[in-house]
Structure formats: structure tokens, C-alpha cells
Amino acid sequence: MIITVAKDETVMAAETVPSYEFPLSDNDNVMPRIYTVVWFVFENTDATDEKNFMCVDRLKSAMASTLVNYYELAGRLKTLENGGVAVTCDNSGILWQTATSDFSVKDLREINFEQSQLPDGLVNGAPANGELLTVRVTTLTDQSVILGVGMHHSLADATGTFNFIRSWADAARGLEIAKPNRDRNRLLGVSTSSPLSAHPEYALMPENPAPFPTLPPLTAATFLFNRDALDSLKAEALKEVAHLTNQPRLLSTNDALCGLILRCVYRADSVAAQDIKFGMAVNGRSRLNPPLPDNYFGNVNFFAFASISKQKLLASDGLGYAATAVRNSVDHMTNEYMVDALNWIASQENKAKIIPGFSSFFGDDFAATSWVTSPAYETDFGWGTLDVLVPRHKIPRHFIPSTFCPSTFWSRHFGRKPFL
């Protein structure tokens, strides 16, 4: 599968926007300084509408209008003396690319949108000029379109990213563009020498870190779970929990699914340590008191953290054990704990040295992010809602439950479809 970039452009806000240095929050400071990359697949089912389907000029004009409200995306990231980040809001613009391909949606369906077989050129996830947002519009041979979007993670979490994309889609349909809430005050911690809690979800980079190693070959897999399978899985987890604790326990479907994936991964990995760290991004908008609004544009991800015994994980009742560990880690994310986490971050001299306390990238640990309740699935630019949503993170041991691209994760240790 070949993708050919036809044109590179810069798209700026359509109107004059504020020009200033916009400091980001303590929670923004600890996010991975990478791009959140996602593909939206829109299938053209009308052979008579090849020219106007997902019209590039209309999409581009809508982007310029949307950047008036989301003007920080047209700026550039700046690293501060304390290792934190800010955005220089100067309307430098975003990277906009158009491309063609030699494959169709039918070709993608034949490989089940398998990550390992999909081409890499559907979005620019590392723009050369420091753009904070990149868009690549790729036209397929059947005149279907893939929108590849990459947004710098320092600016927003998945909820913020998808809210922006939905606003862009509204603009393309001629609707009013919602204004985001960008007030960072609630997510600024207070430096203190004595945080109330330990925060194992974070760690500090060593003074002399080892050189960044060469990544081994990574394999992606997509696993499809229907509703009946998920209901059965959750019922089995609840049954095991009742046996373990002699009392009922509330679990979510996501808890059970994470438990299953954990068991499968570490059954396949015979060299992993006996104590495994599990980290999962939790949306704190509704958990803070008072809550942050849904339209808050920034990072409100906090890391739920669990220490898991490999021996217990692989025991006969390991599904219930793992699901309970996941649930306990999520329940631990209270308003008090998250505020204390912000204070811990604020107390660190160099924000750039703060890293996750779990090592899923080159270590034995595991990370998860759920997109199941994401606002992305209703995205409609005027030609109908998307057909497929594909997260494009090649991160070892990272699991992303979602609705249209269920359960995608990468592993160094086994092939695409292990024993599920």
C-alpha cells in the first residue's frame, strides 16, 4: 500500500487571534511529549459523488474557522526554565497535507484494518517545523477519504482532541463552533514539601539516563469482542471476585477486559518480573470537585496505578484478581488524590524529568487508555459519520479499548492474534 503526498500547506486561523505566551498546566507538563495520532475513515458509498465527497477546500476552510476558537493549536510549543511547557500563540499555523493512495476501503477491510499491515503515511506524527496539529487528507482509489490527525499531547488529552475534531466537523457543516474552556487554574498545583499521599504513578528520570535504545520490531493486533462476549467476560470476573472475597464487588466491563488482556500478555511473557505495574489514564473532569466542564481543552488525564502479582494474575481466579486491581486503582482517583498529585508535580524542580511510574515502553509493565466513551464516534463533516476510527500509537504493551477499533495493543513478544 503506497501513499503519495501531493501538497504541503500551512493553515492559519481565519481571523486575528490573541498573541501571547500561554502557560500550560502541571498536568499538561507530565504528559508524554508526543503526538496523539488517529485516523478517521469515511467511506464513499455514492459513486456519483466522487468530486465533492469530503471536499478538501471545505474541510480546510472549516479548519481555519475552528482555529479562531482553538488558536493555541496554531502556535508553537516552548520549554520553560523549570522544564514545563507553554505555547507561543502567534498563529504560525498548522500543517495541512493532501495525499493519494493505491488502495481502497475494501482493501483495508480485507486485512481487518490490521495495524501491522496498514501504511505509515496516513498522518505526519513528527512535523519538522514544530506544528502542534497536523492533518493529512488521503483520497483512496474508491474516492473514500482517510483523515489522519496528529495533535501534540502537551495541549490536550483524547477528550480534548476529539472535542476539537468535533468542532471542526461542526464548522464544515455550517454549524456554530463551540468555544473551549482553557482555564488552567484548577490544574495548577501548589508546591509543598509534604504531599498528603505517595504517588507511585510518577517517577523522576535518573540524572544520567541510559541512551534511548533502538526499538525492536513491534506488532499490533486488533481483537473484536461482541456484546455477548463482553457480558460473559464480566460475569466470569464477578464470579471469581465473589469467590476471592466472599462478597459482591462492582466491576466495569473495562475492568474485566483489562484483566483478560493482562492475563494473556503475561502468560505469553515468561521473562517478566513477578511484580507488574499497571497504569491507566483516567479522565478527571467529572472526578474533580467541582467538576471541570466537558469542553475543557487540555489534559485532565491522571494515572491510575496498580501493583499486580504475576503469580496471582496467572492463577485460576486471576481474572477476578486483575479486574479488582484495575477497579481499585480507578476508585483511588478521588478529588483529594488528584489535587495532591498536582501539588506533587508542582513541587518538582524540573518538570521535564517527571515520567510515568510504570515502564510499559521498554520494561515489563502495562498501560491502558479507554476510548469507549469518546465523543469521536459521532464525528460528521457533512457526509455522514465515520466508518472506522483507528488509533495509531505504536507503543509496546499499550491497550486501547474503543468502539470502532476494539482493543488494540502492541507487544514485542508475540504475534498478532494470541490465544484470545
TrEMBL record:
A GO molecular-function annotation: acyltransferase activity, transferring groups other than amino-acyl groups
Keyword tags: Transferase
InterPro entries, per the entry: CAT-like_dom_sf, Plant_Fungal_Acyltransferase
Pfam families membership: Transferase
Protein name, as recorded: Uncharacterized protein
